[in-house]
Amino acid sequence: MTEPLVAAEPFSAPRLDLLPLRVDHAEEMATVLSDPALHTFTGGTPYSPDALRTRYERLVAGSPDQDVTWCNWVLRPRAEDCLVGTVQATITRGHAGRATAEIAWVIGTPWQGRGFASEAARALVEWLGRRSVRAVVAHIHPEHLASASVAAAAGLTATEEEQNGERRWRLILGDAP
To answer: Measured in Å, how far apart are the chain's first and last C-alpha atoms?
Structure first.
């Protein structure tokens, strides 16, 4: 079996600790992610604590595809004793060791507008750049201006490509073509 490209590990941003996702985060995160408005652009509805626990069990177990690595973190502001959101990277092994990471983020409604998503996304892109990742992409609904701002703050640029009604944003890291 091929080793994963990278493994989620704890790291920090200026105001946040990014902690690898654990199944026991599900109950607190179900509350953080309970606002139906968080699904306006992505669809679906908030998970119950049990459903989120089941989802986290799958994520923590890892991708069944040996060429894909799932890295997920919860976000904890150092000034507060609570979780406020998540960031994730789905990393796909490429040719000649050049991997691509598809990233996403979500911040609970009470903590939005404080720059946590931008800070976490920037830190995640920097962390990925210190690993084998050479391209970072995100898919953002064209009307989701807050997420577009987060992507831009993390150094990604909108492309003309669309997938399932979302605009593809991209950043090439290092010496990748």
So the answer is: 28
